[in-house]
């Protein structure tokens, strides 16, 4: 409406100008001299561009602030070696900036597209020699060009800042990994180096004095902060912690009963018991350590330098309890039938004891390292401490591997001669374990103590993650997939309330457990990679780019757009199916259309709906006509080479629905098959034979082949009854009996009237056919049977019996044996003549 009013205003102004010019035309000669003295009128001034909107100004100001912030951070990390904590802090500050920049870009993109579309409606600027556009159009064009330019500059600035932030993020990640690698492979004197031991001996007196000073300060802090209330609080906290830590060994068996009398408990019972053992075995110890730490922190009696020592001790006690509870939950050394992993009792007990030993050694080492940090111990003291505990862990691990190998050798000796078996996972794991032990020992001897400590920490960390993954995956399979399988209460309730079939629920359960598995595995992998400098932000950044869109040339690929387009297509497809179902079951049956036409209308509605759904999805993806044309061209090449038959059948199906040579419900004969058309699909047509089997016929065969449609024009059916009677019977009497039998049936049509045909005369019989018609061909078989019964009753009543069976044909002698028979007959006659007396 606005465009119409604007066009009308322009026309009126032009008309008014023309009228005024016409009115002034007669006086032109009188004013010509005066006109010659007047200066030429100035050209119309170009309208000034409109002011930029407040929203665009705010977005530009925000982007300018982000640019200043990013430039400062980029300058801070250039040419400097920063601690890992500072780099991580800068990276955490960049993440919200990235999010804000993406938000600005996403907000400005639709505005820019809308402005470009509005500008395109004005068309191109007039070229030289063409009539100039009006002042209103020029002003509107200038405003729209200014808006497009401002929005485009904002978009480009936002994209440039986004690239800068992502590059800065990547640079920080590279710096962190470089620092991690540098610290990991920092070499010092090996444990066998005499200079290392000499430095340790020379540093011991100073470290002892430092330890005495730290302990003295801690004692003084304790005396200053201690009061009766504080002592009571600390005593209560330590007492509760000891009770929880010691009592957890007896709490779990009482609350979680793993009955050894049950030889084969259910998998769900074993998983619940394992979860209970883990929670009750580790939970009280963790709670006790936390209570003691809160009490010490509240009382403020721990010197700041010793806080990390107390923290290492308390967390170490909780860690030992957690390791023991985790092994007990999965391997159940004292309850064979409740074990989640099938291992021998001796192996389970051995793994439990060695795991607790390894955890204890690691905790002691961490506590001593915390003491070294508290007293600012010299580097040789720190190196020798780490080296000794790394060797201790390696020796314990090696002893565990040796005992497993010895046990396996004993088992093989008891079993007799060696028999080749499938390789299990134990062999490769032991090989990797020995390799890890050798690597730890070699690192300690070579002076790479940090690498040895890191390998030990990662081996323990990965083992814990794998054990938790085993338990978590088993729980997901049982409680997600198992709850929807079979006759469980949840599955039965869902079937009753939602109407889903059992098979559908099982599929949903399998899909849900698979998604849970994948999520657990991804989390486990991220936890394993975290100490190596690969964090979740490294992965989530790529996932975010994949989900929200990344550019490949001029094409933006966005998983979210693809997902929403698929959902839009699914919704439109569901609406199409609902409309089809309404047409098939409600509307079309209320009309007087035949079944075939109703099926054609329903199928055509389905095609239109699917095409519409596809167009909606394509438009949501933002695909232009040129890109769709390219894809269509590629598809046409593929169709030309490999999909000819499919396209041929599809087009043939459309022709069947349009021309309707056969319809749903028609009785057709195709080749050797005969039956009723039940469905015309995209590729083929389903025909139900009389034996209830289904004949699948490609649509192209129905178009190019010969098809007999018995009900193409109407449903009148022909009934043919053939009767043989003895040759001596009266033909007129037989014909009359057959005619009366046909006329007596109430479903036989009177017009055309039934006819009796004298078909042929054989050696023993004369054959008659009675031909009649019925209104519905579906009744032809039943009417034919009724007429047969009636004819035979009439023939029996008239005394006309069944024809005599034809004599069996005499076997003919083979042609090559006929001369031999004649020769035998002549020989017999000759013998008879010879024996006859003269």
Number of strands: 10
Number of domains: 6
CA radius of gyration: 48 Å
Q: What low-confidence regions span 5 or more consecutive residues with pLDDT below 50?
A: 1-51, 418-424
Structural class: alpha+beta
Instruction: Quote the distance from N terminus to C terminus.
Output: 142 Å
**How much helix is in the residues?**
55-70%
Overall average pLDDT:
78
Strand content: 5-15%
What is the overall silhouette? elongated
Largest sheet: 5 strands, antiparallel
Oligomer: single chain
Descriptive overview:
It is a single chain. Helix content is 69%, strand content 7%. The protein is of the alpha+beta class. It has six domains: 49-124 and 134-184, Methane Monooxygenase Hydroxylase, Chain G, domain 1; 194-417 and 426-484, no CATH class; 490-548, no CATH class; 549-623; 641-713, SH3 type barrels; 717-797, 2-Layer Sandwich (Alpha-Beta Plaits). Strands 6-5-4-3-7 form a five-stranded antiparallel beta sheet. Strands 8-10-9 form a three-stranded antiparallel beta sheet. The relative contact order is 0.03. Keywords: Cell membrane, Membrane, Signal, Transmembrane, Transmembrane helix.
List keywords for this structure.
single chain, about 850 residues, alpha+beta, Methane Monooxygenase Hydroxylase, Chain G, domain 1, 6 domains, 5-stranded antiparallel β-sheet, 3-stranded antiparallel β-sheet, 24 helices, 10 strands, elongated, disordered N terminus
């Amino acid at each position: 409406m606005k465009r119409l009013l604007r066009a009308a205003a322009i026309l009126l102004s032009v008309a008014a100008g023309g009228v005024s010019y016409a009115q002034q035309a007669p006086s032109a000669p009188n004013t010509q001299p005066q006109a010659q003295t007047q200066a030429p009128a100035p050209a119309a001034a170009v309208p000034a561009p409109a002011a930029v909107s407040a929203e665009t100004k705010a977005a530009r100001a925000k982007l300018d602030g982000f640019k200043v912030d990013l430039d400062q951070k980029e300058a801070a990390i250039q040419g400097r070696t920063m601690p890992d904590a500072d780099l991580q802090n800068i990276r955490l500050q960049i993440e919200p900036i990235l999010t804000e920049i993406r938000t600005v870009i996403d907000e400005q993109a639709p505005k820019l597209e809308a402005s470009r579309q509005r500008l395109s409606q004005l068309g191109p600027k007039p070229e030289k020699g063409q009539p100039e556009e009006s002042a209103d159009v020029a002003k509107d064009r200038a405003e729209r060009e200014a808006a497009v330019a401002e929005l485009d500059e904002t978009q480009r600035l936002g994209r440039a800042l986004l690239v800068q932030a992502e590059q800065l993020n990547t640079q920080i990640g590279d710096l962190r990994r470089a620092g991690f690698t540098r610290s990991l492979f920092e070499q010092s004197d090996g444990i066998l180096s005499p200079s290392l031991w000499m430095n340790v001996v020379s540093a011991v007196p100073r470290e002892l004095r430092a330890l005495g000073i730290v302990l003295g300060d801690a004692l003084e802090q304790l005396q200053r902060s201690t009061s009766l209330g504080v002592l009571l609080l600390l005593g209560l906290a330590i007492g509760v912690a000891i009770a929880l830590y010691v009592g957890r060994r007896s709490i779990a068996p009482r609350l979680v009963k793993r009955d050894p009398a049950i030889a084969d408990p259910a998998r769900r019972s074993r998983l619940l018991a394992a979860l209970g053992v883990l929670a009750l075995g580790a939970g009280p110890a963790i709670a006790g350590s936390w209570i003691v730490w809160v009490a010490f922190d509240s009382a403020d009696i721990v010197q700041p330098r010793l806080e990390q020592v107390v923290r290492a001790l308390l967390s170490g006690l909780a860690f030992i309890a957690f390791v023991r509870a985790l092994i007990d939950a999965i391997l159940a050394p004292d309850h064979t039938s409740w074990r989640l992993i099938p291992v021998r009792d001796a192996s389970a007990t051995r793994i439990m004891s060695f795991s607790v030993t390894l955890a204890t050694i690691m905790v002691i080492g961490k506590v001593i390292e915390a003491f070294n940090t508290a007293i600012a111990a010299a580097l040789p003291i720190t190196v020798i401490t780490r080296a000794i505990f790394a060797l201790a862990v390696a020796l314990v691990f090696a002893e565990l591997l040796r005992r497993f190998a010895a046990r396996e050798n004993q088992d093989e000796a008891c079993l007799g001669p060696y028999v080749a078996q499938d390789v299990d996972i134990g062999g490769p794991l032991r090989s990797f374990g020995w390799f890890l032990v050798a690597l730890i020992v070699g690192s300690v001897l070579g002076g790479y103590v940090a690498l040895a400590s890191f390998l030990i920490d990662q081996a323990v960390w990965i083992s814990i993650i794998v054990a938790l993954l085993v338990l978590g995956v088993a729980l997901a399979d049982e409680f997600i997939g198992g709850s929807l399988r079979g006759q469980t209460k949840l599955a039965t309730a869902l079937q009753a309330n939602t109407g889903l079939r059992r098979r559908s629920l099982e599929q949903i359960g399998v899909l849900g457990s698979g998604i849970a598995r994948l999520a657990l595995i991804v989390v486990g992998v991220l936890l394993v990679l975290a100490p190596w400098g690969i964090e979740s932000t490294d992965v989530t950044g790529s996932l975010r780019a994949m989900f929200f869109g990344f550019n490949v040339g001029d094409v933006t690929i966005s998983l979210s757009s693809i997902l929403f387009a698929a959902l839009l297509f699914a919704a439109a497809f569901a609406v199409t199916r609902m409309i089809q179902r309404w047409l098939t079951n409600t509307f079309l049956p209320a009309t007087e259309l035949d079944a075939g036409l109703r099926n054609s209308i329903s199928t055509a509605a389905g095609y239109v709906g699917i095409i519409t759904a596809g167009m909606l999805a394509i438009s949501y993806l933002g695909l232009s006509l040129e890109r769709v044309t390219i894809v269509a061209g590629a598809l046409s090449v593929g169709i030309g080479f490999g999909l000819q038959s499919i396209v041929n059948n599809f087009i043939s199906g459309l022709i069947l629905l349009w021309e309707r040579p056969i319809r749903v419900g028609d009785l057709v004969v195709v080749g050797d098959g005969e039956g009723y058309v039940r469905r015309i699909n995209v590729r083929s047509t389903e025909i139900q034979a009389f034996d209830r089997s289904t004949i699948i016929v490609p649509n192209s065969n129905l178009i190019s082949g010969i098809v007999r449609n018995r009900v193409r024009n109407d449903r009148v059916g022909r009934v043919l009854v053939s009767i043989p009677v003895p040759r001596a019977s009266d033909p007129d009497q037989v014909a009359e009996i057959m005619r009366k039998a046909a006329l007596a049936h109430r479903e036989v049509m009177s017009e055309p009237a039934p006819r009796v045909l004298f078909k042929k005369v054989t050696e023993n019989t004369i054959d008659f056919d009675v031909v009649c018609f019925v209104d519905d061909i579906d009744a032809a078989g039943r009417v034919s049977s009724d007429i047969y019964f009636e004819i035979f009753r009439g023939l029996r009543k008239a005394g006309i019996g069944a024809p005599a069976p034809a004599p069996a044909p005499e076997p003919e002698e083979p042609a090559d044996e006929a001369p031999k028979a004649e020769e035998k007959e002549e020989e017999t006659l000759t013998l008879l003549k010879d024996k006859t007396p003269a």
